[in-house]
Hints:
Layout: E1 3-4, E2 8-11, H1 18-25, H2 28-31, H3 43-54, E3 60-66, E4 69-80, E5 83-90, H4 99-115, E6 119-125, H5 129-137, E7 141-150, E8 155-165, H6 166-175
Parallel strand pairs: 5-6
Antiparallel strand pairs: 1-2, 2-3, 3-4, 4-5, 6-8, 7-8
Helix pairs in contact: 1-3, 4-6
Amino acid sequence: MQIRTQRLTLRPPKPSDAARVSRLAGEFDVACMTGMIPYPYEEGEARAWLERAGGGDEGVVFAIERDGALIGCTGYMTFDADHAELGYWIGKPYWGAGYATEAVRALVAHAFDAHRFAYLRAGHFADNPGSQRVLGKLGFSREGEEMRDCLARGEALHCLTYRLDRARAAVALRRA
């Protein structure tokens, strides 16, 4: 399955993405803002993750492409029949161009349409204002705070959590 937006294509990841995923996600400034990407992030680790993602073990995962080149990944993990938690990363050379907002907007629409979730959750480390802006633009409301592990930094960090209900998403996605 592919999802097309104005500038991006969200498509299933494939094993041949390993080198690019390793290079982009493995940059410390990217990895340190995620929970599960180690630093350094070797190509073999990226390949193993892509294999798990292809088998469905990582939830629903999409590679994000711009002009045929992978620039990041996004997806969600279902935790209950009524909700999932989403995540995303964009390679540093592509920061500041609105790609995260565009890709996550498409992912949110897909998740609500495909799975009829009542709500979606997301979180970001407290020192990641870029993700705070993305989630705010898409209508997510602050839900709480918790400590979450960060593999790249090797410690638990303060994480801000957010929630987007189906009704609010319908309004927010129409505005966007």
